[in-house]
Amino acid sequence: MTSADPLLAIEGLSAGYDAGDVLHDISLSVAPGEFVCVIGANTAGKSTLLRTVSGLVAACGSLRFDGTELVGLAAHRIPGLGIAHVPEGRHVFPDMTVDENVMLGAYAVRKSARLAERRDYVLDMFPRLRERLTQRAGTLSGGEQQMVVIGRALMLEPRLLLLDEPSHGLAPKVVDDLHDTFLAVSRTGTAILLVEQNTALALSVASRGYVLESGRIVLSGSAEALAGDDAVRTAYLGL
């Protein structure tokens, strides 16, 4: 892959469930180290898009990561390629400790000599978790649980981080902290594909974005251009 090639390249992708396709002829890309967001209404298909990248939804078309075709690839092989997925809903293992939850994220790279270094990186990113390492994850606040699942994903040292509605249900102060965290992760060179219903947040952190409506991409451009688009401002920013 040359520097001009996208890290993630999706072309003509359709995907869905038994009841039918949710995504229709999707084409988008994420360059190495780029921060891209996908915005849209609650039923637009944003989560399905990330689940398709992770191999959890049947698809047709092309979905290539660093030149490797992901369509048809078993889901358990995808994290080993360098893709970490933080699903919506803060899925911690409630009876396991914070430390155990975080370390599970390194399963695909468990033989790496960098695990201790990576753990320190995650705990430096989320100092509150360092204070709660032996605490059961199910006893944490919603914001702290979100730190756990993001930290768990970062243990993989991903080249591409998939974030699904990370601000949902969180207090404004926690959302602001996550804003800073995502920017810090992006500055390390990790590419991020963020799907968000919080359009203001998404466009404030991403450099480029796509608008998804009824499973189709209807608009794309720089985050600045999308934030200034009258249709986006009316439909998603309430302006």
UniProtKB/TrEMBL annotation:
Keywords: Amino-acid transport, ATP-binding, Nucleotide-binding, Transport. GO terms for biological process: L-amino acid transport. One of its GO terms (molecular function) is ATP hydrolysis activity. It holds the Pfam family ABC_tran. The keyword Glycoprotein does not apply. Residues 8-239 form the ABC transporter domain. The keyword NADP does not apply. Belongs to the ABC transporter superfamily. PANTHER family: HIGH-AFFINITY BRANCHED-CHAIN AMINO ACID TRANSPORT ATP-BINDING PROTEIN LIVF. This is ABC transporter ATP-binding protein. It comes from Phreatobacter stygius.
